[in-house]
Write a structure and sequence with these properties.
single chain; elongated; alpha+beta; 73 residues; two-stranded antiparallel ribbon; 2 strands
Length: 73
């Protein structure tokens, strides 16, 4: 239940395009690329009594983007 609330609140952060719950304490947060959302994520964590253990930035490679765009449904 708490994960659902946090998930919905994370989605409201300006610049966040998608939030996926990976496990009870792990989220995959995607940015729309319009701004650096790290400061907002840290502020969210502090405001909600959460501790960020790791924060990793993953950029999509051109090949991955091409495969996503050309994938047949």
């Amino acid at each position: 239940f708490i994960e659902d609330i946090a998930l919905e609140r994370l989605k409201q952060i300006n610049g966040v395009s998608e939030v996926t719950l990976i496990s009870a304490k792990t989220w995959l947060i995607s940015s729309n690329g319009s701004k650096d959302i790290r400061a907002d994520l840290f502020r969210f964590a502090v405001d909600n009594g959460l501790t960020i253990i790791t924060l990793q930035q993953k950029s999509r490679q051109l090949e991955e983007i091409f495969q996503t765009l050309t994938k047949q449904n």
